[in-house]
Amino acid sequence: MISKLIKLFVLLLILQVLLPAQNVLADTGPKPTMDFEFKYESTEEHPTIVSGILYECQKSDCSDAASLQQLGPQGFRCDPKSCSATAYGFAPYHKLKIEFSDEETRQSNIFQTAGFDSKYTVAVGPADLLVEAQFSVGTLPRMAIIVITCICALVGVGMVVGLIVFLIRRSKKN
């Protein structure tokens, strides 16, 4: 009995040594995103974005602000003209802090998450930022879109089935 257990253990140990060790990457599907489009109030030369921080807050006054951490695909990224964020889940409130090429660091108003794939317009002022959500179909909750689509599909199928039943009964009468 013990020799069978030892043989099984040795076999499992040999299998583990022979199998290649690889990193396993798992993805949990689509993640919420935020895209920020910058609009400048002045007609002068526009400064470019050097870096930025997206603060997340649970409280509406952002007294508990913490920056969005870079964890795998999650993070806040900026290029010279725009910024975007991807997360496993966003907090309800946010605040931006962006450093520009004119050596000014501007902070935004506190804004709410607008949806799963949120789009925002950021008005760049001389000393601050004003973030406003852009409305799009992507801002509707995905569950609402799925429910509306299912209802429309059921109504459509019901109308087709009703038409078929009507035509069959009508043809039997003639």
CATH topology of the largest domain: Immunoglobulin-like
Fraction of helical residues: 25-40%
- What is the CA–CA distance across the termini? 82 Å
Low-pLDDT parts are: none
List the quaternary state of the chains: single chain
**Mean of pLDDT:** 85
What number of structural domains do the residues give?
A: 2
Percent range for β-strand residues: 25-35%
How many strand elements? Answer: 10
Element order, helices and strands? HEEEEEEEEEEH
Task: Report the C-alpha radius of gyration, rounded.
Answer: 28 Å
Identify the CATH class of the largest domain.
Mainly Beta
The outline comes out as flat
Largest sheet: 10 strands, mixed
Describe the fold and architecture.
The chain is an alpha+beta fold and 174 residues long. It folds into two domains: 33-135, Immunoglobulin-like; 140-169. It is built from two helices and ten strands. Strands 1, 2, 3, 4, 5, 6, 7, 8, 9 and 10 form a ten-stranded mixed beta sheet that branches. The longest helix is centred in the last third of the chain and has 32 residues, at 142-173. The protein starts with a helix and ends with a helix.
